[in-house]
Amino acid sequence: MNSNCKIKKMCSIVLMGVMLLSGCDTTNDQEILNQNLPNGGTYTASETGFGGDITVEVTLDDTGEIIDVKVDAESETESIGDNAALKIAEDIITSQSLGVDTVSGATVTSNAVLIAIEKALIEAGIDVDEWKSREVQKEGIDEEVNVDIIVVGAGGSGTSAALAAAEAGAEVMIIEKTSAVGGNTRLASGFFAVDSYLQREEGLELGVDEAVNRLLEFNAYLSNGPLTRAIVEKSADTIEWLESYGMDFYLQQETTQFAHEDDEYKYKVYHKYVDSTEGFNNIYEYLDEMGVEVRFNASLDSIIQDESGTVKGITAKKSDGGLLTINADATIICTGGFGANLEKVTEIMNTEYLTSIGMPNYGEGISLMEEAGAIDWDGTPLLHACQLAESEVTTESSSEALAGYSISSLTQLLMSPLLWVDSSGTRFVNEDVVYDTAFWSNAAYSVGGKYYFIVDTATLEDYTEGASIRVSNSGPGANMDLDDFVALAEVAVEGGTAYKGSTLEELAEAASMNVNDLKTSVERYNEIVKNQEDTDYNKSADSLVYTVEEGDYYAFECVTVFLGTIGGVKVNQRLEVIDIDYNPIQGLYAAGTDAGGYYQGKGYPPYEGLACGFAWTSGRIAGESAADYANNK
């Protein structure tokens, strides 16, 4: 059942209840709804959500109260965004207020629904400021429960932790602040594993020792050796373990990251989900059979410690306003990092030119573990690819051609190794890094998170006929539809995400670049292309295709993307959270993007599926360790 159907069903029930309680004759309800009374009737409005436009139909009675809301949120993330749209609509109808809380984990969708409903109310002549000020009553009941192990977060790491702990005989509860399971792990394609049966079936000989050494060397030996080995050694068995609970995998045959094609350790380690949604559903059926209780829409509020500092459970805020106290022998924190905490991201990265397309987690788990004595060791945004800059100018012609990672055919230019310059107009990298999403974003971050690709009219005209250069296919890939690239470029200029000049001097002025730097970069690059040899940055001859010298000149702004965060508090190889003296904080464990030590910091190793592999396997180890601790108390 899609989200629209769910919302229609809910709203019909609410509407019927309103009519019965008010003594209405339901035989005339449609006639009443269709009357064009003051403030009455149905009003439609839209707002951009996480995946596209969200449209609402708001029906008011003749007193100006909302009696029905229908929401089309099919563009939003399945079971996360669409459930959030459902809940926001329900809360507004129930409370007759715009002051309802957004849904954790789906803030963008929630805000889009609220804004769309607000637009509809304005059209109806309603005082929306008064609606926003209406107090929403929450009368939740406080609860207290006792379990062996509490797992905070139902993403891949939390799910794996709960499954391992329950398998060991522990009584387990999961709390999840959103209304769905899976988190970023479910939205990904699969995960990293070495020496799996799938690899061996293909005759691949990928060794654990080699993989461990590669990771440690890439991380300049700043990562945790015992933790790295524990994760890699258990990765293949975790594939089979998850398959035994209904999560099926297949081994990637071809990589979309062309820089990895000659290195099996980089792409033949990627075990992809057959169907992640079905897999998570199967796992949670098993968890239910094991007696694991899952509490949705419950946000971590505090970590409980006794006088000795031993962790004894947590408290959580329920969506109804009540406080849930969970006493537990062991606590596993898997709250998904801090990708939505833009203040912290900016502080760590020293730039505002970063765009997140990951799950909105604010870092409450890491902060509360710090209060409990943990060390925030290496938490950092997971830099991964780049996108065209978002336009702040709205025009009718710019709506489809501007911004984003795969919206328009302009992404062919974005994902090509053209001439790249920094904000001053200086070339800064071998643009072949576009074929590796981690290195691509790293390069962009090295110049402040923002760069420009420079093309001329002749290049745009060539793309109109079909690009003469290899376009990367990583991530969602470029939109490879043929289009009029000169026209698209003009629309981007109109929207303020690209700049144009009939001369390089004009282009530099339009883009606020240093004219001498830009001219030097373009002249030097043209020489490199003509000589088919890049002695500056060693770009391949296959990518030295387009000079920049014929017709008008264009500069397109691009920004770095991060997919949530990686790293977190310091843990040991058992995923016990440790303090500054390397002593375990008794009863406290962390996994996934709350656990630190697997990375060195801002540079993400270019091994496909690494973050999700760490999530699943670290969660499993944390669950096993926590169960062993709880069973031996």
UniProtKB/TrEMBL annotation:
Belongs to the FAD-dependent oxidoreductase 2 family. FRD/SDH subfamily. Its EC number is 1.3.99.33. Keywords: FAD, Flavoprotein, Oxidoreductase, Signal. PANTHER family: FAD-DEPENDENT OXIDOREDUCTASE 2 FAD BINDING DOMAIN-CONTAINING PROTEIN, FUMARATE REDUCTASE. SUPFAM superfamilies: FAD/NAD(P)-binding domain, Succinate dehydrogenase/fumarate reductase flavoprotein, catalytic domain. One of its GO terms (cellular component) is membrane. Pfam families: FAD_binding_2 (PF00890), FMN_bind (PF04205). Residues 49-124 form the FMN-binding domain. It comes from the Bacteria. PROSITE patterns: PROKAR_LIPOPROTEIN. Residues 1-27 form the signal peptide. It comes from Natranaerovirga hydrolytica. It catalyses: dihydrourocanate + A = urocanate + AH2. GO terms for molecular function: FMN binding; steroid dehydrogenase activity, acting on the CH-CH group of donors. This is Urocanate reductase. Its cofactor is FMN; FAD.
